[in-house]
Specification:
about 35% helix
Length: about 250
């Protein structure tokens, strides 16, 4: 089975314009993401709508693809890039362009999900460490069936543990945080990008609910590695500290 990674990267960002080109430990954020992906995958590409990012990727020896500027999601940008590349890959991994510390083990866990044919889309979950973290609506939650396929994603805490104080909920059930790393079978990526927004997606503002509502099967791999995303300049400062302490 052949896997490739595609990293969507936009220059425009309300909270942190130009963050793919922000410097972290002497390298741009996008270079660090690319190098982490390339340590596992034989092929990786950056999909961007900005010539500055495109040129920066080529300058450090990476592969980049120019895409349209009007995409509503990274998934749509990845589909256009896959078409332009003309890839024969069986599975395409969507690696977030603001995750410079994505780990080899996380990508490998995603790849292993496709060892069974029922997996159409793969993603990752990590157990919450505290109930306060689980209560945060900015951290989507996942519930799965007994085979590890997603039943639902929500910004609310799911499931509800009846008859127990919230303080002990994590002792009663493994509450899972959703990590925004995805992989799609090639034909499935093509199909999901043609779907209109769905009612649950609109309600929760979670794109993956569109796929569930349309009957696609999303298998969830479990990781114990936390992601360190960069959304703001303050996040970049924290990432610098994380880099010094861990690498």
């Amino acid at each position: 089975m052949k896997f490739i990674g595609i990293i969507p990267a936009r220059y425009s960002s309300t909270r942190f314009p130009g963050k793919p080109l922000a410097v972290l430990g002497g390298k741009t954020v996008i270079q660090r993401v690319y190098e982490q992906a390339s340590s596992v995958l034989e092929e990786a590409y950056v999909a961007t709508d900005d010539e500055r990012i495109f040129n920066a990727v080529e300058a450090f020896g990476g592969r980049a693809v120019m895409t349209r500027a009007d995409h509503k999601s990274g998934t749509d940008r990845i589909e256009e890039a896959a078409e332009k590349i003309g890839t024969d890959a069986d599975v395409i991994i969507n690696i977030q362009g603001d995750e410079p510390f994505i780990q080899k083990s996380q990508i490998e866990t995603l790849m292993q999900l496709f060892e069974i044919t029922e997996t159409q889309i793969g993603t990752l979950g990590k157990r919450f460490d505290t109930i306060d973290a689980a209560l945060n609506p900015n951290s989507p939650k996942i519930v799965t069936d007994l085979q590890g396929f997603a039943l639902y994603f929500s910004r609310s805490v799911i499931p509800f543990v009846r008859g127990q104080e919230q303080a002990v909920w994590l002792e009663k059930h493994p509450f899972l945080k959703h990590l925004g790393l995805y992989a799609y079978r090639r034909e499935v990526l093509r199909e999901v990008t043609r779907l209109p927004q769905s009612p649950l997606e609109i309600a929760e503002s979670l794109e993956q609910l569109r796929w569930l509502e349309n009957g696609f099967r999303i298998r969830v791999g479990i990781t114990d590695v936390e992601t360190v995303g960069i959304d703001t300049p303050e996040d970049l400062q924290r990432a610098e500290e994380f880099l010094k302490e861990n690498f």
